[in-house]
Each structure stands twice: as structure tokens, then as C-alpha cells.
Amino acid sequence: MADVFGKQWKRDAFRARVGEMGQAAGFERVVLDDGHARGVRAAILRTGSGLDAEIMLDRAMDLGRVHYKGHALAYRAPFGDVHPSYYNDVGLGWLRTFGVGLVTTCGMQNAGAPNVDQNQPHGLHGGLSTTPACEISESAEWRCDEYVVSITGKMREITATGLFGPNLCLTRTISSALGARWIEIHDVVSNEGFTPSPLLFLYHINVGFPILDEGSRLLSSATRVEPRDAVAVPGLPDHADFEAPVAGYKEQVFFHEMRTDARGLVRAGIAAPRRASGERLAFVVEYPKAQLPMFSEWKQVGAGVYVVGLEPGTCSVLGRANERKQGRLKPLQPGETRTFDLTLRVLEGDAEIRALEKQLAALKRAPARKAR
After folding, report:
1. Could you tell me the pTM of the whole model?
2. Are 16 and 37 in contact (CB under 8 A)?
3. pLDDT confidence of residue 302
4. Strands (E), 69-161
């Protein structure tokens, strides 16, 4: 049943109180019309619980602005949404169109640092996040007493080699339900070409104020955490604790070895400090480790650039050449598909947050499980 306004609703009882279900939950298609974002198609998801999400249809169906009961979950860059036509695939040019938002998908030919692999240059994080969706369809239906909404689209990244390059197709479905505090992303990547192609895939999940604040804490089941480089070494003891914004802060990146639960799932998130009003929220991501074996934490608590990235992926953030060197660059064969599943969830109140903290602490103490 749908949990709305603190009450469990059956289908007919809820339907009797609305004219059409879009009054409570569903999608609204819009076109952004100002500044760098002009012309960008989007769909606004509302669940009726206070969870609203901007799905960027012209940017790989990534999630831009996301709010829960008026509270922002994601950091936003000063220039906000940017049309994909501004994209620059050279070096760090990806940052020119990185408006941030809750989820930015990195890949499919590179994820992570710019690099040169087998004489082919690859820019930061690849071009997938600037790829418009096509064949977009929506669904909204009652399944017994649950009202489920979803939107599906397809993306094909245009690589530097164009016509002679890989032919990978991403089919993405984003789902939620009436009264839900969660969003599910179901991704299927297919090699529709006739030659093997590398596939790198990483979710750049960007948490901002007020979830991120002085006193916020990283929640995870990590049994080992390593700094990416010398800059991050001094911050290792405090990687899970977040301070107030620091002018001139230099980003720190940490690699986590995550412990899974009995279902093979990893959960990680950010718990906000308790507010003067008594409110306390946390944001959590959940995914199968077998699909996304690597996890990076991007700690960037600078003044004005105040964000923490939770980044599960098939790879690290060191780039394609490094993945090849480490033997992790597994090609996707012609006709082969790979599936990735991600659940984003808001926790509300001490009871829910403490329950998760208890579960994660128990996982850290338990014997290691083999990912499946």
C-alpha cells in the first residue's frame, strides 16, 4: 500500500480522493529555457512523499536537482544545468558541463582521470553524461495497492572515432512509487556492434548541503580505506567525518573495500547532523557489489564547492589506461549485455539512521562474504 501523510492507502480509497494520479505522483515533462541550460529536456518526478527529482533527458537521464520535503540532497555547480552542446572531450573539458546534481553517469569508454590508452586519448569521465536519450517512454500503473511510476530511454555515446567506434547502447529505467522515499535506476548496456568493446561505468553521486554539513558522517561497511594520492594521506583518519567549508580546500579521494550483506548488496551514505528543529536525515545508496565492485569517495569540502561524491563503479577513478594495466578492463563482447542496479533512498529520523548504522557495524565485524 502507498504510505502518504502517515497513512497506508489502498488503491480505490486513494483514487477516490484525486481527479488524476498526477495530482499525487508521476512525471512532468519540461524544457529548460534559461542560460547555459536552454533547450535541455527534463522530466520532473514527484512521489507524493516530498521526494522530487529532475531527470535530465538530454544528459543520459541523469538526476539533477533532487529534494526531499524542500531539502536539497545534491550539490549544484554555480552555473547549474548545461546543455550537452557545450561538452569538450579533451582532458578536463568534461568539467565545463558538469553542473553536478545528484547522479552523473561516467563512461562508457572512460571513467575517471584523463589518460591515453593504446594511443587513443580519453577525457575526464567520458561522454556518456552529455548523451541525449531517445525512445523515451513513461509508465504509471497500480500494481495491486502500489502505484508505480517509471521512465525509460536509450543512450548511445558518440566516441572520438564516430562511425568506426564502439556501438554500445545504454537502456535506462528510473522508477519510484506513490509515497516512496526511494528512486531505483536500472541500467542495461548492450554491445550492438560486431567487435568487442571496453566498458567502464561509474555513478558519480554528489551529496550536498544540508545533508552534507559540519558534523555529517559517512555511513559505510568499508573494511579497508586507502588514499588515492599524497594529498589525501593526511585526511585518511578523518575521511568519514565532514567539517564546515574550507577556503582553498584541495580534493581528497579515498578507495573503499566494501563488505556486502547476505544479498550481496553494498549500502553507503551520508547522515546529516541533527538540526535545531529536531529533524535528522540521511541519504543512502544501495547496489550489488558483483555489478559494481569498486567504490571511491570524493571529499571536496571547499567553500562554494562543498560536495562529497559516493562513486560505485566497475572501475576506480584513475582512468582507462590504469584499468587495463590492472587487468580490470573486461571487454563487452558483441551481443553481450551488462546490468547495473542502483537504489537511492532517504532515511528520516534517528530510528532509521541508527538501524542502518547498527547493520553496517555488524557487517564490518562479520566474516567476509563472497560477492555474488
Report:
1. 0.96
2. no
3. 98
4. 71-72, 103-108, 115-117, 120-122, 134-143, 146-155
